[in-house]
Amino acid sequence: KGVTGVARKSFDERLITSQPHCGQKVAVEVDTHITGTLHFASGAVGTILTTFDVHYPARNQARFEVYGTKGTLLVPDPNTFGGPVRLLRPEDQERPKPGDPALLNMETNPFYGYRDMPLLFDYRDNSRALGLADMCQAIQSGREARCNYRQQHHVLDIMTSIIESSRQGRYLPLKTRYTRTAAMKNNPMHGVLDA
After folding, report:
1. Which domain holds residue 169?
2. 191 is a domain residue
3. How many helices (H) does the chain have, and how many strands (E)?
4. Which of 63, 106, 144, 157 could make an SS bond with 112 (beta carbons 3.0 to 4.6 A apart)?
């Protein structure tokens, strides 16, 4: 529906730390720390933070966190193709009584009370070509691919609108709308995609 954003370039130049240009400096020409508030058509509100400008421990790297009225869902970074999906419900948050050994665990474990959820669908491993396979199946069957130009156009609209919102200092309605396509069916035969 719309977005509000704040974006900035924290450094004028950066040191390249990967090969083949390790040690060279490069001029920074784009915003490198971007925060956005997303207003969904459903009425839900989301936040996004993308940055090259902060340091954080590897164990707490990017993940999706969904906060709702019935619980919190933590989903690991999809780029790693692994990690647990965790769910915290209000009934799982009962605080241990003083002296209970669980109290120490609660204070030292950031995921105390969360339950690991079973993964319900195939393709848990590196499946970067899954979208391409779906496109091929879509062409063969005559349906629209799940990862289609409408989706990409909407994502681009969101990204550029967050930056533009920061420049203008105001909420911006999105120019595009997107209706999500049906999810893939969970086919028991690995490698066989639905039509």
Report:
1. 2-173
2. no
3. 3, 10
4. 106
